[in-house]
Automatic annotation (TrEMBL):
It is found in: Cell membrane. GO terms for molecular function: mechanosensitive monoatomic ion channel activity. The chain crosses the membrane at residues 20-40, 61-78, 90-111, 132-154. Residues 143-179 form the Mechanosensitive ion channel transmembrane helices 2/3 domain. This is Mechanosensitive ion channel family protein. Belongs to the MscS (TC 1.A.23) family. It comes from Haloplanus aerogenes.
Length: 369
C-alpha cells in the first residue's frame, strides 16, 4: 500500500506532490489534535480509573508528531520531489528523512517510559502491592534507553553487531559474578507476579520460621517474628521453598484444640460444654460456629478436637492458651476425668512373681506373690 501511494505521487509534479503530502500529514495532525483529543478526553473522563488518563496524556504528543513528520519522511521517498531539489536524494534523506524518523523514535521512547513510570507510581501509592514495584520503573527505563540507542544506531546505518556481542559477553560475566543477586532479583519478580504474599501477611516457611511480612525488597523479604525479631530471607530461597500464607485468602484462621476424656464420660454433655466454652471466649468468632469433633478411640481416652475460628493468625496461640485453661477448669468443676496413660508392669524373680501394679504418674505399688 505504501509503495502504491508513493508510485501515485511520482506521477505528479514535484510541487503538487509536496503540497499533497504536507497538506495530508499536517492536516491529519491538526484534525487529530482537535477532534481526536476531545473525543479521547470525553471517553477517559467517564472511567473511574486514572490509568487511562495517564496513557492518553503521554501518548497524545507522539501520535501527533508521528502523523506530522510522516509526511516529511514520505517526501524523501518520492522520486519526483527528490529529483527536483538542489541536493541529491541521499543528502535529502540524510537531512530530512532520517532526522524525522529519529525524532519519532525519541518521542515514542520518552512517552513509553513515562507511561510505565507513572502507572507504577500510581499502583505503588495504592499500597495494595509490594513496595518494590518502583524497581520495574528502573528496569523499564534501562530497557527503553538501550532499545532506543540500538534503534537509532541501526537507523543511521551503524553496525551494532559488535555492541550486541560485547553486551552478551558482559552479561555472562555479570551473571556469574553476581548470580546470587540476580537470583534474588528474579525471585522477587516471581513472587511479585505470583502474589504469594503482601505487606502485613503472616507467613510460615518450611524451615519453621514464621512472622509478619514487614518489608519486601529487591533482594530479600523481612519478617517480624512473634518474638519481635527481624528475620531477613533471600527472595531466591522464598521462591524455591514452600510458603504458607496464613493471612490469605482471608484473615480469619481456624484453631484446633485437642482434648481427651475418660471412657464412660457423657459425650453429649461434654460436647455441649466445649462449645459453650468456645462461645464464651471473646477472641473466638461467632461465625462459623465452634464445634466439637470426636476424632478416635484412643488407648486411654476418647480423643476430641474443639474447632473454632479467630480473626487473624496471630491470635491463634493466645486463643488456644485461653481455651486450654477454660477447658481444664470446667472439666475439673464438672468432675470429668482427663485420663493419662497407665501400664501394668510385672517382674519375675527367682523367689516368685512380683506385681508392680498399675504404674502411672510416677507411683508404683509392689506386692509379692
Amino acid at each position: 500500500m505504501f509503495d502504491g501511494f508513493v508510485a501515485s505521487l511520482d506521477a505528479l509534479p514535484a510541487w503538487q506532490a509536496t503540497a499533497a503530502v504536507l497538506a495530508a500529514s499536517f492536516g491529519s495532525a491538526v484534525l487529530l489534535e482537535v477532534v481526536g483529543v476531545r473525543l479521547a478526553r470525553r471517553l477517559t473522563s467517564r472511567t473511574e480509573t486514572a490509568l487511562d488518563d495517564i496513557v492518553f496524556e503521554e501518548l497524545r504528543l507522539p501520535i501527533v508528531v508521528t502523523v506530522a513528520l510522516a509526511g516529511v519522511y514520505l517526501l524523501t521517498r518520492v522520486e519526483s520531489v527528490a529529483t527536483a531539489t538542489l541536493v541529491d536524494p541521499a543528502t535529502l534523506a540524510l537531512f530530512f528523512g532520517k532526522p524525522s524518523l529519529s525524532v519519532i523514535v525519541l518521542v515514542w521512547a520518552r512517552a513509553l517510559n513515562r507511561v510505565v513510570n507513572r502507572v507504577v507510581e500510581a499502583v505503588k501509592n495504592r499500597g495494595d502491592r509490594f513496595d518494590f514495584a518502583p524497581v520495574f520503573s528502573n528496569v523499564w527505563t534501562l530497557v527503553v534507553l538501550v532499545g532506543t540507542v540500538a534503534v537509532l544506531l541501526s537507523l543511521w546505518d551503524y553496525d551494532i553487531s559488535p555492541l550486541l556481542a560485547g553486551a552478551g559477553i558482559a552479561g555472562i560475566a555479570i551473571g556469574f559474578a553476581a548470580k546470587d543477586t540476580v537470583a534474588n532479583f528474579f525471585g522477587g519478580i516471581a513472587l511479585y507476579f505470583d502474589d504469594t504474599y503482601k505487606l502485613g501477611d503472616f507467613v510460615v516457611l518450611d524451615s519453621g520460621d514464621s512472622g509478619t511480612v514487614v518489608k519486601v525488597g529487591v533482594r530479600s523479604t523481612t519478617l517480624l517474628t512473634r518474638d519481635e525479631v527481624l528475620v531477613t530471607v533471600p527472595n531466591s530461597v522464598l521462591n524455591a521453598t514452600r510458603v504458607t500464607n496464613e493471612s490469605a485468602p482471608g484473615r480469619r484462621r481456624r484453631v484446633r484444640v485437642p482434648i481427651g476424656v475418660a471412657y464412660g464420660t457423657d459425650i453429649d454433655a461434654f460436647e455441649e460444654l466445649l462449645v459453650d466454652l468456645a462461645l464464651a471466649e471473646s477472641l473466638v468468632l461467632d461465625a462459623p460456629k465452634p464445634r466439637a469433633r470426636f476424632r478416635r478411640f484412643g488407648d486411654s481416652a476418647l480423643e476430641y478436637e474443639l474447632l473454632c475460628w479467630v480473626n487473624g493468625p496471630t491470635r491463634a496461640a493466645k486463643t488456644r492458651h485461653r481455651l486450654n485453661r477454660a477447658i481444664y477448669h470446667a472439666l475439673d468443676d464438672a468432675g470429668i476425668e482427663i485420663p493419662y496413660p497407665q501400664r501394668d508392669v510385672r517382674m519375675r524373680a527367682s523367689g516368685g512373681e512380683m506385681d508392680l501394679g498399675a504404674v502411672g504418674d510416677g507411683d508404683a505399688v509392689a506386692s509379692e506373690r
